[in-house]
Design a protein that fits this description.
By secondary structure, this protein is mainly alpha-helical. The protein contains six helices and two strands, in the order ββαααααα. The protein has a two-stranded antiparallel ribbon.
Length: about 120
């Protein structure tokens, strides 16, 4: 198991796919990293040398905000909105959709399981 940015990435997958296990790195960013370091797209993590893994680790540390720092940054941004009492912050605080989606019927992911209302028989 190669450990990059505090995450054990799977050894039997291609490098591009394995890098996406790191929070903050998607497919596009993974391809950019691999192209920058000159690693083949079809290379698997288990085939990488220790020096290549080290170069990947250094590139990610230098150029990208990932894992704990990214999560902390996102949480601070949300907390800032809540402290400002901005509309988006109030939506975060009340657990409702933030980006203008309808809530009359949908939004179960944000609102949670439907709660029955007493006395609403018909």
């Amino acid at each position: 198991m190669a450990r990059i940015a505090g995450v054990n990435i799977p050894t039997n997958k291609r490098v591009i796919i394995a890098l996406t296990y790191i929070h903050g790195i998607g497919r596009t960013t993974a391809v950019q990293i691999v192209d920058k370091l000159g690693i083949a797209h079809s290379a698997r993590v288990q085939d990488l040398s220790d020096e290549e893994v080290l170069r990947i680790r250094e590139t990610i540390d230098a150029d990208f905000t990932v894992e704990g720092d990214l999560r902390r940054n996102t949480a601070m941004n949300i907390k800032r909105l809540m402290d400002l009492r901005a509309y988006r912050g109030l939506r975060h605080r009340s657990g409702l959709p933030v980006r203008g989606q309808r809530t009359h019927t949908n939004a179960r992911t944000r609102k949670g399981k439907a709660k029955p209302i007493a006395g609403k028989k018909k």
